[in-house]
UniProtKB/TrEMBL annotation:
It is an enzyme of class 2 (transferase). The chain crosses the membrane at residues 306-323, 335-355, 376-396. This is non-specific serine/threonine protein kinase. Pfam families: Pkinase (PF00069). It comes from Enterococcus larvae. GO terms for molecular function: protein serine/threonine kinase activity. Residues 1-264 form the Protein kinase domain. Its EC number is 2.7.11.1. Gene3D superfamilies: Transferase(Phosphotransferase) domain 1. It catalyses: L-seryl-[protein] + ATP = O-phospho-L-seryl-[protein] + ADP + H(+); L-threonyl-[protein] + ATP = O-phospho-L-threonyl-[protein] + ADP + H(+). Keywords: ATP-binding, Kinase, Membrane, Nucleotide-binding, Serine/threonine-protein kinase, Transferase, Transmembrane, Transmembrane helix.
Amino acid sequence: MENNEIKGYVKNGYKQIEVLTDKENGPVMVRNNETQKFWVRKEYPVFLADSLATLQKIEHRNLPKIEEIVVDGDRIFLYEEYIHGKTLSELIQSSDSMDGQAILELALSVLDSVEKLHGFGLIHRDIKPSNIMLTNDQVVKVIDFDAVRRINGNKENDTVQLGTVGFAAPEQFGFAESDARSDLYSLGVVMNICSTKDYPKNHLSEDLLIREIIIKATRIDPEDRYQTANEMREAIIYQLDQLEQSSESVDSSVSENEGFQDWVEVEEVQQPVEKKQRKNVFSISGVIGGISFLMKYIPGFRTKQLWKMFVAVTGYVFIGMLINNEATAGNSYEYRGRWIVDSFFLFIVPILLYANFLDFHRNIPFLASTSVIKKILGYVFLTMAWFILLLFYTLFLRDLLG
């Protein structure tokens, strides 16, 4: 049904009240003639019938209620809950940037909604600020299912390539089949927008509470991202727990009653946190927190996957024993010192290069690509760089150091 229909037009037992956007075939506020309740009617292509039927079965606090689905030829009319509130896009435009804690809490609600979708075999594929609403009752709602699809797992790429440029994961544009990790990518971009009002590729958030989460969520290769909504949720909860532990005596919470508009400045939260951290620098919790912080930068420990950590520990122990045995075999301090430096270029440098230390691969075109061939070429160039560095050290630096 077109948006230029007259007010009061009746279709499928619903009376048209108001066109909500200027978009052709966009959402329309309607009223059920029998119950007199207000709903939003949206038009979808018929190929989404199966996905929308599944969506109707889902009841969740952070998703709109689907009242009815009507198939009319090659079109589907979906009648969903009318939400009183504002979109996250509107709130961001009309206020200062959100602080890290508010962003984490918002992300948890979005994760709850997409995890529910994933549990029913659906992915949203268009998570962005304009599709996230905050109701007048301060409830986060994920809306708009134009790009929703069922997870297949056996396709080379999506049959219908949809999503918003800047928020959609690379695989949504034909590189591979999208899945649950595609929604997590989009959420990572949304988190960065909330913090900087810009995309992470242009201006990555400097807020330490969310920076690492954004980096991991928006990695080019889906294998390098959070693999499930629950995994991303655990990372967010960990950050919130750390904040709570380090700021027990500081009221650094954001009042939800202000509709996410009265953001607390990041500096107001961080200053007392840093002061308390210095005070408890030698506490057990501080030591554990420090170890956890370092693990984010040690190859093999960043993903917290047990098999990777086991391989990393085994490798580090082996290299450590090799370096120690050779160093102790020498008769002079000069020999031992040179061997330690040799070991750095022989063992440590390739580990840093190949294990993507500080996520530098995302800044190298070939290594950041989802193409297997380009990735192989990227590692070939990486090997050449290591060889050239090793050759330079052997020919010029080694004698100078020893």
